[in-house]
């Protein structure tokens, strides 16, 4: 008997009720991304009882072999698109059909797959689905294409996220005789001709924003300069490049601004009066918005000796940003605020983010607060949520609060030291006992910051000091996030979780092979936990391999995303976790606030049934927008550093090998927080073989080579500021490779070349 599992392909034998072959399972997973959970696969093939157990073993083996990977509760082929994705419609095919590509795509996965946008004329006529157009960003349902000759996927548009923009960003280049051309920043765009009358104030080499004035049927289209952003060497120009390249909405529509100016101010209805509670904000010294405040005190209950009560209050954004409002539509389109060295592209207009929802010192502000009780061992005994009106007792910077605790209070922190700051630090010590017992993943990857000069160019790159004040706020925010998830789950209220899956088994195996090359053992099989990785990191502490091991452990981790289905947070080692503490800058937090207000009956602004029904779509969107923001921030830093170093061609720098590929070596300059590339063809007079397990390139004849983490000396030979790219020449001689790598070479020279290896000739 044949069942619905026939969709796996009629050319492969299928027996309904029997576990199918690996080939059938792989095809089914590839062709049915929306039905690729273990439960759905079992249902599709009619599996019950022992057959389900056998299926689980086969799927685990496929995962061990790297042939499938787990995404939330579903399985996908590596590099496959999920069942719902955010797409950019970029072009048309020869038949005029719209073609899209994923809005964000990891470089290591190769070229992003093409997706054909499908919509029947009857659907368009009946208005059943939105109609996308060139340049639109859309949320779409993904299907594997049946026609093998065309794109690998087709898609049906669920929702248009951002309508096409009729503007381009590029560098203006003059041409003889007047006028010029626009050289677009986005490589997907074509050049434009610009007539002399449409130049405005643009000069040769300026970064400009151009409106597409006329599209020619033959030859290049023509454009009109809308604005001159300035020299491409300025940070203002560089962040604008990233904003345009990643399609980040950065100008609030007038309707959104108008709505923000006319919102109804929060009153005391459904609110507790907490204005006498001395909550304080602790933020970076240059922070303009303050969305969280904290307070701690001893628990006087005889049932909790030496326990503490920690209160976290978060700005009540849900009062001002209501579902389906103009503010809400714009916020979900942005997903989150984006931070550049010189500017912030906020999720909400300044009237909301920097004024009405900023917990300013001495000013009444609405908030959603959680009061948490902890035992002296750092175990949470209980918590309650409250909708309140508060008044911040003080605005402090991290350094200011830390200095007071360290014995150097100033005029502001002195009066707060005994009554507010010391109780906070005592509470942190209690919470830290719980954190130490929980053992979240403790990677040592310091974050570098760029300090700019007044003209917008780089002054210096530095690593900010990591203070206990930072850790205090971080741990209190984590506990508030956990409390939010626990409360909503107890109320059976749909929500958006922040989830982080365990590393894929294929990545675990790659890490295990690498660690073996430096003498560190990693347990095989079983369920790894975050503390397993902490043991690995501890083994490498204060050794030459410390940086390299931290980098490899980081690479092995999955990416945290938002999802209405909970699988826990692997990195934090938490079973329930949701983002609650930053609704000014993250839409996920705003959804959680609305869910709490609705489920606890705390007044206006609760979650609506329509929102609950679309949490899958919202989670997919905001996860994509988060990756978009990270990519834009990273690209901006790379371009800034490339500009900064463009005048230092020929200089020598100390670096460390941060990546090894078949094509060459990536070298990081620690003092700048930037990477450059050394092509394998420039390394020397030898054939270089890529050894993935050892993360090395080594000479076939000499046995000399380079490994991940090696300290090297390089010379800068090229800087391409607009691309954010640096190219180096290697000055350090390769070092003798370990015995294991030399044995590996002998194996390959006998003709038994291993998967993923490749010989390259160096400089002749």
Automatic annotation (TrEMBL):
Q: What reaction does this enzyme carry out catalytically?
A: Exonucleolytic cleavage in the 3'- to 5'-direction to yield nucleoside 5'-phosphates
**Molecular function per GO:** exoribonuclease II activity
All copies of the S1 motif domain together span 650-731
Pfam families, sorted: CSD2 (PF17876), RNB (PF00773), S1 (PF00575)
Q: Which domain of life is it from?
A: Bacteria
E.C. number: 3.1.13.1
Q: Which family does it belong to?
A: Belongs to the RNR ribonuclease family. RNase R subfamily.
Question: By its UniProt entry, which NCBIfam families does this protein fall under?
Answer: 3_prime_RNase, RNase_R
Protein name per Swiss-Prot or TrEMBL = Ribonuclease R
Organism listed in the record: Ciceribacter thiooxidans
């Amino acid at each position: 008997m044949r069942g619905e599992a026939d969709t796996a392909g009629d050319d492969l034998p299928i027996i309904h009720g029997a576990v199918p072959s690996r080939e059938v399972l792989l095809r089914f997973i590839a062709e049915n991304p929306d039905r690729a959970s273990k439960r759905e696969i079992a249902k599709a093939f009619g599996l019950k009882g022992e057959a389900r157990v056998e299926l689980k073993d086969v799927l685990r083996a496929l995962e061990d072999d790297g042939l499938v990977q787990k995404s939330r509760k579903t399985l996908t082929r590596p590099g496959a698109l999920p069942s719902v994705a955010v797409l950019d419609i970029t072009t048309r095919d020869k038949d005029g059909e719209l073609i899209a590509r994923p809005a964000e795509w990891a470089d290591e996965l190769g070229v992003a797959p093409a997706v054909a946008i499908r919509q029947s004329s009857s659907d368009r006529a009946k208005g059943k689905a939105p109609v996308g157009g060139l340049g639109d960003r859309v949320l779409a349902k993904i299907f594997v294409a049946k026609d093998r000759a065309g794109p690998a996927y087709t898609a049906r548009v669920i929702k248009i996220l951002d309508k096409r923009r009729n503007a381009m960003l590029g560098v203006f280049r003059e041409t003889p005789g007047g006028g010029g051309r626009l050289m677009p920043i986005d490589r997907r765009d074509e050049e434009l001709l610009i007539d002399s009358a449409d130049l405005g104030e643009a000069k040769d080499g300026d970064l400009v924003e151009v409106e597409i004035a006329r599209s020619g049927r033959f030859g290049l289209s023509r454009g009109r300069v809308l604005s001159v952003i300035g020299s491409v060497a300025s940070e203002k120009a560089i962040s604008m490049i990233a904003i345009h390249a990643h399609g980040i909405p950065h100008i609030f529509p007038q309707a959104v601004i108008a709505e923000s100016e006319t919102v109804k101010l929060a009153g005391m209805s459904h609110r507790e009066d907490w204005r006498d509670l001395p909550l304080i904000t602790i933020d970076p010294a240059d922070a303009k918005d303050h969305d969280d405040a904290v307070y701690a005190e001893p628990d006087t209950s005889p049932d909790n000796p030496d326990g503490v009560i920690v209160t976290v209050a978060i700005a009540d954004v849900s009062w001002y940003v209501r579902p389906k409002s103009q503010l809400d539509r714009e916020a979900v389109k942005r997903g989150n605020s984006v931070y550049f060295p010189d500017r912030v592209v906020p999720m909400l207009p300044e009237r909301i983010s920097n004024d009405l929802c900023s917990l300013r010192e001495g000013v009444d502000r609405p908030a959603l607060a959680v009061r948490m009780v902890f035992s002296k061992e750092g175990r949470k005994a209980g918590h309650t949520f409250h909708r309140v009106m508060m008044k911040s007792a003080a605005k402090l910077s991290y350094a200011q609060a830390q200095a007071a605790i360290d014995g150097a209070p100033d005029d502001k922190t002195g009066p707060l030291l005994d009554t507010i700051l010391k109780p906070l630090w005592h509470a942190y010590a209690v919470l830290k006992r719980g954190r130490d017992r929980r053992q979240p993943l403790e990677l040592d990857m310091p974050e570098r910051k760029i300090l700019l000069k007044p003209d917008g160019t780089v002054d210096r790159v530095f690593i900010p000091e990591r203070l206990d004040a930072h850790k205090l706020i971080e741990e209190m925010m984590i506990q508030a996030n956990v409390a939010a998830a626990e409360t909503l789950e107890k109320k059976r209220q749909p929500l958006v979780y922040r989830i982080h899956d365990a590393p894929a088994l294929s990545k675990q195996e790659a890490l295990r092979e690498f660690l073996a090359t430096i003498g560190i053992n990693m347990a095989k099989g079983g369920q790894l936990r975050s503390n397993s990785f902490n043991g690995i990191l501890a083994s490498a502490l204060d050794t030459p391999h410390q940086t390299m091991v931290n980098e490899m452990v980081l690479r092995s981790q999955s990416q945290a995303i938002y999802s209405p289905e909970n699988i826990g947070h692997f990195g934090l080692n938490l079973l329930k976790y949701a983002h609650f503490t930053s609704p000014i800058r993250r839409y996920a937090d705003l959804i959680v606030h609305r869910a709490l207000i609705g489920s606890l009956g705390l007044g206006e602004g609760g979650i609506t049934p329509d929102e609950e029904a679309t949490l899958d779509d919202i989670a997919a969107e905001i996860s994509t927008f988060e990756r978009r923001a990270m990519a834009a921030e990273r690209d901006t830093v790379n371009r800034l550093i490339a500009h900064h170093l463009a005048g230092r061609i020929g200089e020598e720098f100390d670096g460390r090998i941060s990546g090894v590929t078949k094509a060459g070596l990536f070298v990081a300059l620690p003092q700048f927080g930037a990477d450059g590339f050394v092509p394998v063809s420039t390394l020397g007079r030898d054939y270089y073989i890529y050894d993935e397990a050892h993360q090395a390139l080594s000479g076939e004849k000499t046995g000399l080579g380079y490994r991940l983490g090696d300290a090297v000396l390089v010379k800068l030979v090229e800087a391409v500021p607009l691309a954010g790219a640096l190219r180096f020449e290697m000055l350090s001689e390769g070092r003798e490779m370990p015995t294991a790598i030399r044995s590996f070479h002998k194996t390959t020279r006998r003709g038994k070349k291993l998967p993923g290896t490749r010989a390259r000739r160096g400089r002749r």
